[in-house]
């Protein structure tokens, strides 16, 4: 048993090292992590809007502030040339992104606009969360429709 | 082929073929399938209307399923779903430039009817379990399937919409083929219920 564990531990070292060195893998993992963070905070807000999660003003405001912060990040820089689906495995980023980087950026700006002021907009009652989720969700959809592989 | 497969049979009569509910079903289906499709592709980001329009289609399909067993004979599945022999037999007369005078869906057309109904049922199923990761248009049953399935469902739903478009285009093309090649108007019977058929 100990032998197997040691072997397994040894085997992961070079793999981890390779992963660290591969800028394409890194960029894909980073942007997917970015989207997961968006998703987690959206999950909190959507849950409160629907009543699945009990509304609390601080929690809602924090989740919205997280999304605002994420929207300030230069996400398009994580879309390195050569990291499209079809070129490498494990990504759903369509090659169209690189064909029209300006429009892709515009879609991300759409999220930034939707997120502006969200952390205050969600305060004051559960009823205020729904419209914010609607605006943010529309920005997610607009980009996924064009630039994310389905399924 | 001097006396073709349809020639030596009985007299032609006008009969009440399609009952009012079946006709209402068809034209409501057309309305709501087109509405669902257009809202899916071009509708607002918040897809509430698309969902509701899809639910109406679901209701219509449930009605059609029941009607296929308890409705008047021409509406019943057992009346128009036929084997390969009947289909081949029908196809022999298919390109004759004369009306089929068929008393219901013909054996070949039945395949198209079933394909459309099945594709629509599948479309509703994939829609109900879709999760496009936007937190606003999540299918109400998405949480009951695995996360891999609910993201794949989005892809299936997109493919399904193309399939439905194709089936409907074929459907309408064939109706036009009957109208202009076979000189048989199938649309009027779907509106008035009355059709010229050959007794056999
Ligand atoms: C979204 C579009 C459409 C869908 C999904 C659709 C679906 C169907 C279905 C399911 C049937 C079988 C009826 C039954 O027994 O339940 C049918 C029959 C029929 N449809 Fe459509 N239809 C569409 C559009 C149209 C249009 C635009 C026309 C007119 C040009 C049309 C004309 C007919 C006719 C004449 C029949 C009867 C065919 C026969 O005599 O066997 N349909 N359609
Ligand atoms: C007759 C039934 C339906 C038709 C013809 C239809 C058609 C469509 C079409 C054309 C799209 C756009 C797909 C694309 O551009 O890739 C779409 C998207 C969608 N539909 Fe439907 N749909 C139907 C029923 C439903 C139902 C019942 C639901 C859920 C309850 C649903 C949920 C969705 C969702 C969530 C999307 C967005 C997927 C995405 O973001 O790509 N649909 N539908």
Automatic annotation (TrEMBL), chain A:
UniProt cross-references to Pfam families, sorted A to Z: Cytochrom_C_2
InterPro entries the record matches: Cyt_c/b562 (IPR010980), Cyt_c_II (IPR002321), Cyt_c_prime (IPR012127), Cyt_c_prime_subgr (IPR015984)
PROSITE patterns attached to this UniProt entry: CYTCII
Residues annotated as binding heme c: 140, 143-144
Signal peptide range: 1-19
Any one Gene Ontology molecular-function term assigned to this protein's record: heme binding
Alphabetically ordered keywords of this record: Electron transport, Heme, Iron, Metal-binding, Signal, Transport
One cellular-component annotation, GO: periplasmic space
Record's comment on post-translational modification: Binds 1 heme group per subunit.
Gene Ontology process terms (BP): electron transport chain
Protein name, per record: Cytochrome C
Native source organism of the sequence: Paracoccus halophilus
TrEMBL record, chain B:
TM spans (from-to): 20-39, 51-70, 108-129, 159-181
Membrane topology term: Multi-pass membrane protein
Domain of life: Bacteria
Gene3D superfamilies for this protein: Transmembrane di-heme cytochromes, Chain C (1.20.950.20)
Signal peptide (residue range): none
GO cellular component terms, semicolon-separated: plasma membrane
Keyword terms of this UniProt record: Cell membrane, Membrane, Transmembrane, Transmembrane helix
BP GO annotations: respiratory electron transport chain
Domain Cytochrome b561 bacterial/Ni-hydrogenase: 18-193
Subcellular location: Cell membrane
SUPFAM superfamilies recorded: Transmembrane di-heme cytochromes
Record's protein name: Cytochrome b
Organism: Paracoccus halophilus
């Amino acid at each position: 048993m100990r032998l197997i564990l040691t072997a397994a531990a040894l085997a992961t070292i070079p793999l981890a090292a390779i992963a660290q060195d591969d800028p394409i893998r890194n960029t894909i993992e980073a942007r997917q992590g970015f989207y997961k963070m968006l998703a987690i905070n959206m999950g909190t807000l959507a849950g409160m809007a629907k009543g699945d999660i009990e509304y609390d003003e601080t929690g809602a405001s924090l989740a919205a502030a997280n999304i605002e912060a994420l929207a300030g990040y230069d996400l398009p820089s994580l879309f390195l040339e050569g990291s499209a689906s079809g070129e490498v495995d494990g990504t759903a980023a369509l090659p169209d992104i690189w064909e029209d980087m300006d429009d892709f950026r515009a879609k991300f700006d759409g999220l930034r606009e939707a997120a502006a002021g969200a952390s205050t907009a969600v305060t004051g009652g559960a009823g205020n969360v729904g419209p914010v989720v609607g605006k943010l969700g529309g920005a997610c959809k607009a980009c996924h429709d064009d630039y994310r592989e389905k399924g | 082929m001097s006396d073709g497969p349809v020639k030596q049979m009985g007299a032609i009569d006008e009969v009440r073929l399609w009952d009012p509910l079946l006709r209402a079903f068809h034209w409501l289906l057309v309305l709501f399938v087109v509405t669902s499709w257009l809202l899916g592709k071009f509708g607002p980001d918040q897809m509430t209307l698309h969902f509701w329009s899809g639910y109406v289609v679901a209701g219509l399909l449930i009605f059609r399923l029941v009607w296929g067993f308890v409705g008047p004979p021409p509406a019943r599945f057992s009346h128009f779903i036929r084997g390969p022999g009947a289909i081949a037999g029908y196809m022999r007369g298919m390109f004759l430039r004369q009306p089929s005078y068929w008393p219901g869906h013909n054996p070949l057309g039945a395949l198209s009817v079933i394909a459309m109904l099945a594709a629509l049922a599948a479309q509703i199923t994939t829609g109900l379990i879709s999760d496009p990761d936007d937190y606003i248009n999540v299918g109400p049953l998405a949480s009951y399937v695995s996360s891999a399935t609910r993201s794949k469902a989005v892809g299936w739903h997109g493919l399904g919409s193309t399939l439905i478009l194709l089936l409907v285009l074929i459907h309408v093309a064939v109706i036009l083929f009957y109208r202009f090649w076979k000189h048989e108007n199938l649309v009027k019977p779907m509106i008035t219920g009355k059709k010229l058929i050959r007794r056999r």
